[in-house]
Write a structure and sequence with these properties.
Largest sheet: 7 strands, mixed
Shape: globular
Oligomer: single chain
Radius of gyration: 21 Å
Distance between the termini: 53 Å
CATH superfamily of the largest domain: NAD(P)-binding Rossmann-like Domain
CATH architecture of the largest domain: 3-Layer(aba) Sandwich
Number of domains: 2
CATH class of the largest domain: Alpha Beta
Length: about 220
Amino acid sequence: MGNRAISQAVIGRLPRYYRYLGELLESGVERISSNALSKRMKVTASQIRQDLNNFGGFGQQGYGYNVKYLYTEIGKILGLEQKHHIVIIGAGNLGQALANYTAFEKRGFILKGIFDVDPALEGRKIRGVPIRMMSELKDFLSENHIEIAVLTIPKTHAGEVARKLVDNGVKAIWNFAHTDLNLPEHIVVENVHLSESLMRLSYNIARYEEKQREKKE
């Protein structure tokens, strides 16, 4: 790969490849061609080959891809062979739902702490992890080498909390707070806007219904 930049579009497709290859492994599939993989993923075989060629290719013409090997290598590219300690900031419905999502551990994301400002939640455990108060956050971050924080708090407080996280060693933020964070460039931020996803869904439904009406006319 060297120092060549990889497009965000390619990087965005890697988790899908990883997920589909994992499903193939679970089904006992040992080898698959780019054409067969494209049918499963609804991505052209040419696109798959181009994407994987950014990282060395991994396949042989007429032989296809070794599923286990490709799954392992994409996992390495995504950094999943490493363990990442994470905390969740905000123990409301969304924060608790994310804390209960057991697949995180399978991907190397280890939930170390959950934080909130509501005293009524203090000490309550989610999968064995107690909810702590925000007053404990600074010491907890330094003692547990936290790399990633998940923000599921109101946007009015997100900026202040994010800066506190960064000041205490957090390298990346998974942001559900419906606001853009003004942080140093070296901090990795992945924004998740649930309402925008729903609006895209609404758009696609409207376009589908429009096409159906056109067929009837």
